[in-house]
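Thread: Modeling a multi-component assembly for a lab meeting

Hi all, long-time lurker, first post. My supervisor asked me to bring a structural picture of a complex we are working on to next week's group meeting, and I have zero experience with this. I have the sequence lines for every component (936 residues in total). Could someone generate the structure of the whole assembly? Inputs are pasted exactly as I received them:
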Amino acid sequence: MNAKTKLTDPKKESLPGVPNINFMGMRHIAVWASIILSIASLVSLGVKGLNFAIDFTGGTVVEVKYNNPADVNQIRLNLEADGFKSPMVQQFGSTHDVLIRLAPQEGVSGSNLKSRVMGILNKDPSNIAELNRIEFVGPQVGDDLVTDSGLALLYASIGILIYVALRFEYRFALGAILATLHDVVMILGFFSVLQLEFDLSVLAAVLTIMGYSLNDTIVVFDRIRENFRKLRRGEVVEVMNISINETLSRTLMTSFLTLLSVIAMALFGGQVIHNFALALIVGIVVGTYSSIYVASALALKLGVSRMDLMPPEKEGALDNRP
Amino acid sequence: MRNRYPVWKNLLILTVLAFGIIYSLPNFYGEDPSVQLSPSRNAKIDQSVLLQIEKLLADNGVKAKASELNDKRILVRFHDTDTQIKAEELLKSNMGNNYSVALNLAPATPGWLRAIGAKPMYLGLDLRGGVHFMLQVDMDAAVTQAQDRYAEDIRTNLREAKVRYLSVERDKASIIVKFQDAQTLAQGREVIKKEVRGLVLNVLENEQAIVATISEQEIREVRKFAVAQNITILRNRVNELGVAEPVIQQQGEDRIVVQLPGVQDTARAKEILGATATLEFRLVDSEHVIGPDGKAPLGTRIYNDRAGRPLLLQRKIIVTGDQVVDASSGLDQQSGSPAVFITLNGTGAKKMADTTKESIGKAMAVVFIENKSETKEIGGQKVTTKRKVEEVINVATIRDRFSKRFQITGLDSTEEARNLALLLRAGALAAPMDIVEERTVGPSLGKENIAQGERSFLIGFALVAIVVLVYYKVFGIIANLTLVFNMALIMAILSSFQATLTLPGIAGFTLTVGMAVDANVLIYERIKEELRNGNSPQAAIYAGFDRAFATIFDSHITNLLAAIMLFGIGSGPVKGFAVTLTIGIITSLFTAVTCTRMMVNWIYGEKRGVKLWI
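Re: Modeling a multi-component assembly
Sure thing. I ran the full set together rather than chain by chain. Output:
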C-alpha cells in the first residue's frame, strides 16, 4: 500500500467498514505480474502444449477395478507386447483402480479392442479386472471438437465484447475482454505447466470462468460508472479506486463462497470431474484478481475518461435509480 | 418507499415456489428395480397379459412389489435386484417370443405425483451405466448410391423412349451420357429433362455427350434422407434389443448418437445395430394350400406375416430390394386413402411389368428380410450364429399392369403407410455407417458417480450455507432458504423438461450454489453500505434491493452468454452442465431478487426502528 496517495473524497474516508486500499496505485506491479505470467503461460503452451484427452485426440480410455492391487508396469509391458504403442497405464484412487490410455490406431474400433484389452488385463487369473468404463473416440470426432471448441471460445469473446460495449463503453469492453482472456490463458497455462489432462469438461470450465470473471468485472464497472456520476470531482484513478474498494467485500465474499462449493467438488466429486473443478478453482482465483486489477487498469490505460460514461442517459434508464 | 409487496405478487411468488417444490419431489423417491415387457410385432398387451404375468411370477415364488399396465408396456416392480433378475429370466423364457423383456429402473414416484405429471430427472449414461455409440453416416456413399440410381434411371427412360445411346456412365461427381449424333442427343436430352428430376444437364457439343450433375438441392435432400433413414432403421432395431428408454438422435449433420442405458454387452448391441436388411416382392400362391403336415407344396414357401399368420408365397422372386429406387408415403389421388408410392429401377421395372401383365387380380406380398449375426457364449467359447429373419410386411392385390412406378393402397392408416415406406426404403438404400465413438460405463461406476456427485454437492452447499449464516445472520437464513428454493426450482424445471442429468450436470448444481448466492451478497453488501451511509433500515433495504438490481441483471446476462456458448461445443455430458447452469442462472435471478425481498419484507417491512441483523 502506498500511504502517500490518499483518497480525496472526505465522505468516503470517514466511513467505517469500507476498506481503503490503493489498488490503482499498485496497478503497475499488477500489470507486470500479469504480463509475465501470461507470457510464461503462452511459452508453456507453445513448448509443452496441452495434455489433450481422448475427447480431442481420439483414442481409447479403459478404466478397470482389480480385486487385488495391480502391477502397473506389468500391465504396460503386456500391452506393449501385444502391439499397443506407448500405452499410458496409471493408478488412480487406489491400487486396485487402473486407468489405461491408448493412442488411436488405424482400423481398430471399439468392440474388438475391448475384448483384446480385457484379455490382456486379465492375463493373471488370480487378479481379475472388472470393467468400469471404456471410451473410444475416433480421430475425426476429436478434430471436429477442436474446431467447435475454438469457435465457442471465439463466439463467447465476441458476445461479451458486444454486450459490454453496449452497456458501457468500448474501452471498458476491451478491458473486460482482455481481462477475461487473461484468465483463460492462465488456466490453460496452469494445465500446460502441470501437464494435467485437458478434456471436454475442462473446456466447459474455461467457458464458465469467462462468464464468471466477466461477472466480477461488470460489478466493478457498474460501480465505477455510478461513482463517475455521483462523485463529480476526483481523478479517474481515484474514482476507480473508490469503486474497487466499495465492491471489495462483495467480490471477495462471492469468490470465497463459489470457491467453497468448487473445492468440495474437487475433493469429493470423484475422478471424472476433478480436473473440471481444478480449472474452476484456478479460474476463480485468477478471475477475482483480474477483475480487481486487470480490467480497470486496462480501461484506464486505454484512456477511459469521465466524459465517456456521463449521460446522454440512454442506458441510465436501465439503472432503475430512484 | 414501502417495503411491502402487494398480495398478488406474494401469491405469485409462492405459487412458483410451490411448483418448484412439488415438481422436484419425484427426484427424492429413488427407483425400483423392475422388468419391462413390451410387445414385439403385433402381440397384444392388455389386462389379461398382466394377470398371466402376475400368475407366472406368483407360481414360481417370485415376489413382485407392484405391476402396472400403461399404454404400450407392462412394468413389474421388485424390491431388490436379485428378484428382478430372477423374474427377467423367468419372463424371457416363458414370454420372450412375443414380448421383448428388458431390465429397467423405474422411478418410484408415488401415484399422486404421477397423476399431476411430475417425473424425476432423466439420468445420463454416466450416472446409470450403459453404452453410448456415435455413428457416422457415410455421406459420400449415400451420394454415390444416388448417382447410381440416377444413371440406372436415365438408362431405363432412354430405353423406354426408344432413344439410342452409346453409354451411361458415372464419373466422380456426374453422370455422362454419350450419344451417336446430335439428333439423338437432343431427343435424349428432352427425355431426361422430362422424366428424371433433380438433375442439372450440360451438353458437351463436340463429344455428343450430356453431363448430368445432381443438383445441390437434391444432394442436400439425399444427405438429409440418408441420416433420417438410418435413424429409423436404428430405432427399429434398438426396440428389438429390449432396452428401456433408449436415446437415438441426430447430432450435427451426419452423425447419430445411440445411447442404451443398462446395456453392458456392447458386442451384441453392435451386431444388432449393424444388421443388414433386404426386400423381396413375391406372388402369393392362392392355388395351393398348406399341407396338413405343415409342409409347403412344390414351388412355394411358407412365410409369416407380422401378426404371425402363415402365408403361402411362390418361390420365384419378382423384384429384390436393391431394385427399389424410392418409396414414399402419401395419399392416393383418386380415393384419398393412405398409399405408398414405389419406384423401381430399369431391371426391376421390366420384371415387374412381365409379372403383373399375367397376374392381374392376384395378390403380391412384400417380404422383409433382416440378416443378423449373434454371438453367444456356449461353454466358455464364443459362437457366432447368423440368423435370417423373414417376414411379410404387406400383401396387396394387383389391379393393373405396372412397371417402374406403382402404388400400394388399402392401408389402414397414414402411419401404416409411413412405416411401410420406411421399411421398403430400409431394405433398399441405407447408407453405410461407422462407429466413431463408443463409451461404456459400468453400472457400479454409475452408482459411484451419483454418490460422489451428491456428496460433493451437499458438502459444498453446507459450507456455503454456514458461511452465509455466520456472516449475514438473519439475512443469511433468508439467503439459505432462497438457495434451497433455487435448487428446487432448477430440479423442477429439469424434471418437467425431462432433461438429462449427468455428472457435470451435478457439478452445474454445485457451481450454481456459489453463483446464485452472489446476487444475495450483492444486495446485502449494498444494504450494509446504505446503513453505513446513515440511512434508516427501511430506506437501506429499499435502496439496497433497488440499486443492486442493475448489477445483478448485468452479471447474470454475462454468465448466461458464456453458458449458452457451452451448448455449441456440448456433446452429451457437457450439454448437461450447460443446461443446469443456464437454468440455474435464470432461476437465481428470480429467487435472489423476489423471494429474498418477500421474506425480508415479511420480517422487517413496515416496522419502524428495527435493527437489521445483517
